[in-house]
Amino acid sequence: xxxxxxxxxxxxxxxxxxxxxxxxxxxxxxxxxxxxxxxxxxxxxxxxxxxxxxxxxxxxxxxxxxxxxxxxxxxxxxxxxxxxxxxxxxxxxxxxxxxxxxxxxxxxxxxxxxxxxxxxxxxxxxxxxxxxxxxxxxxxxxxxxxxxxxxxxxxxxxxxxxxxxxxxxxxxxxxxxxxxxxxxxxxxxxxxxxxxxxxxxxxxxxxxxxxxxxxxxxxxxxxxxxxxxxxxxxxxx
Length: 237
Ligand SMILES: Cc1cc2nc3c(=O)[nH]c(=O)nc-3n(C[C@H](O)[C@H](O)[C@H](O)COP(=O)(O)O)c2cc1C
Description:
Layout: H1 10-15, H2 19-25, H3 39-49, E1 62-67, H4 68-83, H5 100-116, H6 124-132, E2 142-148, H7 155-174, E3 178-182, H8 183-186, H9 189-196, E4 203-211
Helix pairs in contact: 3-7, 4-9
Bound molecules: flavin mononucleotide.
């Protein structure tokens, strides 16, 4: 259980960063230092994330965070499930329907990431090992799993959970931490539910590994850009 005490000074440190800095410093970290974040810091992040907006303020996010032995146990279960080919996603997560710029960006992201960690396009085994790092939470000392109740097709609730996740991620950055959202963890929703005793009625959208980033190790400086806003936005007058 997380400790309710707030660490003095945290709030001052956060206030020193501008919104612009926080948004631009956030990235999906895939290399971490082993040191866990203090419980008070995690609790402060959770207090921020809890401020996320949601449809009719229903606040549908059901959040499970693993650290220490629980983290190691879940990671072992995920690797075992993967080795046994036991995928139990709650939603279809394929990329088959991507087209045009969406597909191009997805391919570009994969290529840039693998290049940053020195894995060649044709090195299938190395790519697989890199993919498995998802299930080791990229070495992060904490992982968060985002579950939600299931209403209709889930779209409305998924939007709310996305709001929660981004607030959580930005707060991590504001606290000097980073996280990596991971749909790959959602492929093992059933395993995670089983390990943590979660109600089968709750569905998992994705997970977030988090901790203090290790920017000095291989791939630690990998960052990806964005399309110009004209590709996504139309300003009507
Ligand atoms: C909902 C969601 C799921 C993601 N799933 C994964 C994942 O399974 N594995 C991974 O390495 N990165 C994953 N990412 C990270 C994206 O690749 C990353 O956000 C994108 O490339 C932009 O990079 P940035 O977050 O560093 O700015 C995910 C991101 C989001 C928002």
